[in-house]
Structure formats: structure tokens, C-alpha cells
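Researcher: Let's try something more involved. This one mixes different molecule types, so please make sure each is placed in the same coordinate frame as the others.
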Amino acid sequence: MIHAAPLTGEYFIAGERRGSGEVFHAYDPACGASIDDIGFFCSSEQDVADACAAAEAAAIPYADLPRETRAAFLDAIAANIEALGDALIERASRESGLPVARITGERGRTRGQLRLFASEVRDGQWLRLRIDHADPARTPPKPELRLRMVPLGPVAVFGASNFPLAFSTAGGDTASALAAGCPVVVKGHPAHPGTSELIAGAIVRAATDTGVPAGVFSLLSGTGNALGAALVADPRIQAVGFTGSRGGGEALMKIAAARTQPIPVYAEMSAINPVILLPEALAARGKALAAGYIGSLTLGSGQFCTNPGLVLAIESAALDAFLAEAGQLVEAQAPQTMLTAGIHAAYEKGSAALAATPEVRTIARGVHPTGPHEGRTALFSVTGADWLANAELQHEVFGAASIVVRCADRAELLAVLSALEGQLTATLHMDEADIDDARALLPVLERRVGRILANGWPTGVEVTHAVNHGGPYPATSDGRTSSVGTLAIDRFLRPVAYQDLPAALLPPELREGGQPGVLSRIDGKWTI
Amino acid sequence: MIHAAPLTGEYFIAGERRGSGEVFHAYDPACGASIDDIGFFCSSEQDVADACAAAEAAAIPYADLPRETRAAFLDAIAANIEALGDALIERASRESGLPVARITGERGRTRGQLRLFASEVRDGQWLRLRIDHADPARTPPKPELRLRMVPLGPVAVFGASNFPLAFSTAGGDTASALAAGCPVVVKGHPAHPGTSELIAGAIVRAATDTGVPAGVFSLLSGTGNALGAALVADPRIQAVGFTGSRGGGEALMKIAAARTQPIPVYAEMSAINPVILLPEALAARGKALAAGYIGSLTLGSGQFCTNPGLVLAIESAALDAFLAEAGQLVEAQAPQTMLTAGIHAAYEKGSAALAATPEVRTIARGVHPTGPHEGRTALFSVTGADWLANAELQHEVFGAASIVVRCADRAELLAVLSALEGQLTATLHMDEADIDDARALLPVLERRVGRILANGWPTGVEVTHAVNHGGPYPATSDGRTSSVGTLAIDRFLRPVAYQDLPAALLPPELREGGQPGVLSRIDGKWTI
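Model: All components are placed in one shared frame. Result:
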């Protein structure tokens, strides 16, 4: 059992702790005050260059390790995170304002993700092995071709404030990039520097213990945008993983596109996740839907990418009753501490702007906050015609704010859906008699969203094979990919074909008979 | 048998011929004169909007057609192209300056590609079907998730001058986008407008005959860049396929990145395709290597993306002999007509600039041209140190110009390879005794290129499953993908997950037991 080492405020370059000079402090949003136990050192541009140079130097050795070593590395990270014990939970909870129970659950998810990717590395299907045998008798002679996926190279990962464990230092982006064979340079989120340091220590120990080159992982630390900008601009970085605001994601996309060699950016940015209450379901169980809705909306103070920020229904007495019920539930909602002072301020500004919009009706607000950075739940309604006339109304307000759009009829509901930007999810609440309505909406939803749910709530994303946590722009910067589940590994791979290469030079998986247990396509036929 | 209809100079919007006002003329590069038999109408920005609106309207109906219909459509295009007979061959040869034999071969490849993608549509593996069953007993309950790939939506395809059939109106980009279920709007290359019109007629007839919505295909026609720029900027276009110059590809990337909704651009742009002559192979068979080299270099007047523009070898008497032999072969090379006046002028400028570079030695030039746009083969050499000191020397000169880099030793050869930008291919010429040298170079090549060949020549790309015609920037704009072979279909797809959706609403392939013969991943296990 490895216990958490005391925090030093240092960051990590290729396994070595480093830090001197300028520091910043962690912040406890529940108290509204800095955590003064330690200062966290700010990484410099030289640190960025050093981390990238180490990552580049490690890229080929790491990619060439046996798959089993890479899998063992991921498993060891998971075990080391577990071994950090309560010190990790307490620190992450204090830095994020998220309850201990939520952080404990998130730690389980983080370990589960790492182990899922370890299992995926062993499975090897992501190699996409393909072999086409030669045909020397053909005119012209057909060459032998063998193909596999190889890692892109060093990946920059940005920690996310709303998932200090599951989408930060050893979160989904890091796990999937390491699984793909890419070294990772993390830019830790300044909202949880102590959490990042603890997790980085767990990764560094896992690398040492499993014989993985130290350059495979670095953690940079600091406030402001210059550090991340320098990281994305570094010519050795080959891809970027980011979860955060649309503004942040778009800034990284601009930097990546302006490089001499542009690189892919996987930014999970902005969604309002429409929930459609179809007429029969609304009439049959409006009260239960209201309870489910407000429960999903207020989970974690609404700070989820999949938070239901938009509800659509057709005008009816049942909709009035639903709104009244939802309003009562909102009024009873206790305020919850938000992640950072900045997120809280943006939420206040966004919800106040909605409340001040003439055509928007405030249905209810939650209990008035007393703590320094508590978010007050906000429920609004607007007619379909007014929503369609004001594009501002589909901008995400990150937090527990949501708008119910009262559509005049089915045509207006369809018009609202058709006017939506790309989304992570859409949800249909439906009964048996709603099925034709649902069927008519599905093709429109498939064009616009990454995950379609029936009779559930979008918060809560299952980490598995058949999940997609992605969606057309601006839900993500690259709707061809998922940042959750085993599909995420594909983001960091590209194909290489080998033509007529002597067997002695082929990677082992591409030699004749070298594919035991790995899905492969041989002369066009799939075999396992 | 459908014969080629007489040319009218019209373009096609959603199956309808259209054209009035301004015209341009095709050009016969062998004669150096316009082909005055007909004027080709220039599409307007309104035509762009109309084509995109029709494509958007067709997107959902086309995606929802049975896979068999989509496959039959691709097969019918192939058959209709065949039925165009000699009229197509003659027109394409006249407009491109490429010999009849080459165009005939290219027609075979074009038909083969269409049929390969038809077969791929039937195979269905690109759907990437995944099912994770529910587990209501788990805490929290595990939802059911089902995932498939869906088409991105309308795709803009730019015809390529160097492949008037295989990478133009019904070429690889069009075939793979249509296979993925995406409507296509082609911007025809102005170097072969008659060829484009003939092929477009074949596509339109195939759509009619197989019951595919007319909006699935449009052909826009015109000169200058404004038409293509408007097409890429149109908000309904969801991806771009392009084969051409680096400048052209980068211009499209900029337009795509500046959209409100940025979209993927698949531009196949620029490569010099290093060929490495390892010492033993060079000593053993330098004469044969010289013949293979000059044959590959001058094929099609050097106008291939995979043309060997860079040869690397270590200083030796064998290298001197190789250069002497290659030089003699070059001097005997008859000039060949290049594709367009612009390409010929750029080739003249590029090869003259190389010849005028002090550290570059001109080994040989081909026979002096007599025709108006004939390219004169050019062979240069430079030392490794001089090559490393001048980044200009790795810029592609499109045509039959190539540089042999004389490296002082293995370290300098590795340094040259390490300084290379991304490439489509790299080739190793090696004997048994070269195997350790080759092994040392492979990891460096894997980081930089898309296809690695041994003892062959990079021109000639097999259209199959295990091929990759792609590579890191600037070989292509997106090194994660291939523009040739069955992998190409993935460029136009994105995942959608369905959570707890009633079976009646699921796409047929995702229903329980609905995957006969289609590769699928069920609860993590692959099955066929």
C-alpha cells in the first residue's frame, strides 16, 4: 500500500519533481478562501519545452513496448490512485467544493476507466490489423500490404475543473492517450493543484514500477492561459485533449490550426442537451418527469456537460402542471457550492441575463445562497416562437439553469430541434402512444447529437464500449470521436501500411499468424 | 448499353442540367490550345446554394435507404462509366494530355473503387456496431447502449487535375462519401470539364435507376477559386475531400476552420516520398535500382502524389555509379505533356530554382521539349549537410524532378530522415545484409509516413483494405485517415449511441439479432 506523499507544490517533468520561484495557492470554494497550507509552483515555458522534449524522446520507446507492459502501466496507475486513500478524496473535495460521496464515486470511475483501457490495450482490436496477401500472377502483380494503427505521438491533456479526477490528470483523455501509446503532457487545472500533484505522483510511480520511460508523463502547473497556449503550440505535441468552455476550446483550436503542422484538438465544450417531453408521457407522468428533471438539473450544482439545459414540450394543461411541479421543486432546492469563483460568477451572469430577457419567464429560483460561491437553481420558460427568434437562448449557462420551451405544436417543436447547434445528447420521454412522434424526430436528432436517450436523463455517462460522449460542433470540436468509452482510444491513432516488408521487419502483430486473439481483416475477411 | 450523350457544357444541380451566361473552354495541353467544340457554363454562388440545399434535403432520405440500395447505386455508377465507352477515354485523354492507355487503366481503377465501396457498404463493418446490454441489478443500474456510425452529411469533393477519373467527379472521395451515406457536391476541375460532364451524367443516371434521391449528387463547374471557397463555406457542407497542391489544400483548411461550425478537410497535398538505397542493395544492383527509379520518377510525367522526389544513400563508389546510370537514363527520357499550362509553368519554375541553387548539382536533364507543355525530366544531387541546411529543398516540385541526397554516413542519413516533414510513403531498398540498417530506420519512418515499402517503388497505389494513402502533415491535412482503400469510408462517419431506446425505434442493424454477417461488438466481445 502506497500512501499519499505530503504535497510539495511541485510539478513533474518526465518523472522528476520540479519547482521554484512564483507560486499560486489552491482555493476552497466552500469557504471562499485560499488554502494556505502550500504554494504551488508555476511551470515556465522552459518547462513546457522540457516536458515536450522528454515526451518526444519517449514516444518511440513507449510505442515499442509490449502491449502487456502498457496495460500493466494503466492498471498500476489505477492501483496507485486507490492507494492514495482518503488523502486524495479529502483534497479533491476541498479544492472542488464537490461532496466526498461524489468524489469517491468519481475516483471509482477514474480507476474503472484506466482498467478498461488496460483491458482494451490487451484486446488489441484498436490496432485495426489488416493483411492483403500478394498476388504475383496478377497483371500488374499485386503487392503484399499489411496495416496497423500507430500512436500519433505526444499528446497535451488539459485538466477539467468539473471532473478533478475523471477528466483531469489521470482522467479519460490521459488514459486513452496512454493506451494508444502516446506520451502525455498534462496541463493541470489550477482549481485543483493538490489533487493533480497527488495523481501525478501515482502515475510517476506506476511508470517506474512497470518499466515505462519517465518521459511518458509530465504535469505542468500554473494559472492563466499562456502555459497551455505554449504547450499546444509546441511542435512536438501531436494532439490535444480538453474538456471545458467553448471559449477555451476554441482558443486551443485556433492555436492548433495556426501551427506549421496543424494538429487535431479534441475539445468537449458546450451543450444544452435537449429533453423532449412527448405528449402522452407528459400527460401520464408529468409529476415524475418533473422530479427526474430537477434531480438531473441540480446534480453536482448542474456542472455537467450533459446537464439538461433545454426542455421541449407542446403547449397543454399537462405542460402547465409539469412546470408548476418543477417550479415547486426548484424553490425547495438548497444552493450548492460551485467549482470555482469564476464559474460561479459566470453562472450568476448567465442566469441573470436570462432572467432579464423580456420574452423569458422566470418560473422559479432555488433557495437563496448563503455560502460564498453557491449556485442558485434557475428555471425559465419561453415560447417556441420566441426561442426561435433569439439565438442567444441556446448558449449554455454552465450550472443548474434550464429553459423549458413551450412549443405551439409538433411543427414548432421540430423547428426548434432543427435550429439547434450540435449537442452531446438528446432525450425523448415517451409512452407507447408517442412512438410515431418519436420516430419522426429521430433522424433530426441523429444529425445533431451524439447520444439519444429514451426515458432517462442525460447526466451520468456509462464508461463502456457502446457509449458515445461526443457530438457535432460546438458540443465538441470533432464530432467524429468520443471522449468517453473505448472508442476514445481511436482519437490518438493513425494508420501505417507496410508494403512487401520482409517478415523480420514487420511488427509482431502483422507477421503471418501473429494475430492470436486480435481482431484482424485478412484478405478482406474479418477473423478473430 | 448507355452511350455518352453529346456534351452540352452544362453542370448538374440535383440531377438537373443547368447553365447559362458565362462560359469557359477546355484546353488541350498537347496542342497548347483551347478545345473550341463547346463552352462550359460557370456555376454561380446561387448554384452552390442550390446544390447544398438539395444535398441537405437528400441527406436523411439517402442515409435511411437500405444498404443494398446504396451499394446498387455505386455499382450502377461503375457500369454507367464503362458504358460511356471510348468517348470518355478520348475526352479525358485530350483534356489531360495523359495517354489513352493510362486513362484506360485509370477508368478500370475508378470502376474498381466504386465496386469495392459497394461491396464495403454490403459488408457493413464500417457501421462499427456495438451493443452493451443493460444490467438493472447493478448499483446504479446499467443502461442499455447501442452504437453505430452515421454519415456526416453533405460532402464537398474537389476534382483533381492529375486523376481526371480516379480522383475527380466519381473518384475515390466521391465513392467513399457516397458509400458512407453522404450526399456529394463536386467542384469539377476546370482542366477536364468535358470528362466531368460525362461522368456526372453517369452518376445522375445511376441515381435515377436505383431510386436514390437526386439531391445526392451535384456537379459545379467553373474556373478560379471563388466557387470552391463558397462551397466549403456553405453551412450545409459537413466535410471536404481534396487532392491537389499544398497551397490549395491549406486555403480550404483556412475556410473550413473559420466557419461558425468548423468541418473536417481531407486534403491530400504534398509529398516527396523518400527512397532510401541501403548500402548492400546499392552495391549489389545499382543499375537495376537506377532503372526502377527513373521509371517511377517519369511515370505520367512525374505527376503522382507518390512520385519519388527524394533519394537518400550513403557516399560510395556504388552511389557514384548509380548516379551516372540514372543520369544516362534521364538524358534519354523523352519529354511528356503535363496536365495543365499552370502545372507545367510551376514545374519549370521549381526545377529552374533547384538548378540555380548553388549547392545543388544538376546530374542530368531529359530531352529538350518541343511540345507546348512538355515537362523535361530533371535529376539533381546534393550533400546531406547541404540538404539539412536548406529547408527549401524538401518542398515538392510537382513533376519528374528528383534530388539524390549524398549522405556522409548513417548518422547523416538518419538526420535527413528525421528532418523530413510528413510523407505519403517511404521506400527501403535493401538486401539481407541491410536488415539491421533498415530496422534502425523503421521507427523514424513510422512517425513520418503513411506507407512503408521495401524493394518497390511508391508510384502505383493498390486500392484495397490494408493500404494507406495518407500521412502526417503536410502529406495530408489529416494523417488519421486514408484517401484510398476501404479505410477511406471512415472519413465521412461519426458515432451515435442509443440509450434504452425501444426496439421499434432502433435502426434495424442495432436490434437484437439484427447483425447477421456484420461485424459487431456485443458486451465487449467481437462477433460476426
